[in-house]
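Mods, move this if it's the wrong board.
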Amino acid sequence: MTDPHQILHDVFGFSAFREGQEEIVRAVLGGEDVLAVMPTGAGKSLCYQLPTLSRQSLTVVVSPLIALMRDQVEALRRFGIEAGSLNSANDQAENRRVADAVREGRMRLLYASPERLANTATTEWLARSGVDLLAIDEAHCVSQWGHDFRPEYALLGDVRRRLGGVQTIALTATADLSTRGDILQRLFEREPRVFLHGFDRPNLRLSMQSKEH
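Not the wrong board. Structure tokens:
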């Protein structure tokens, strides 16, 4: 099953892409590096999950929080997709399951923290396992201008090179011009396709009123 619309319907249960998703999916399927800025709730994860399933390949997803990794892995496994994570909360059985699935070529989406990927032994193992795509979630953390700057994220350009210059998609819900420039400089050796879909959240509003004394 390689048709994006068929995978969207049969695996994820959606009849149509959300705004901005399809052009990013097709850019990734076309082999392009991508920086995508999309509002929270716009469906960023699908932009790397669907191409992974279309190509039946291995994607490494950089995620900043163990809870986020676990939520994503559980959701994917409910869809019947082989997914796992590398984090300090794993027990021995889970680490064994992940290693076996990677070795046997069954693993599709492997989530890891930037701290774990900074370990050279981990990236060498993944490079030998044939990683096809590196997806960097919360990519604003790469930048010193990002509101959640984490120094380990700044090492991901080196991680990308150790993985063989693998195709990369960086995603964030918030990145101004300075932050985007930092992301481009730190992560990419060649100019990626940049997709900007704004920060507007029409389902949220801010109101205020004068306080009475």
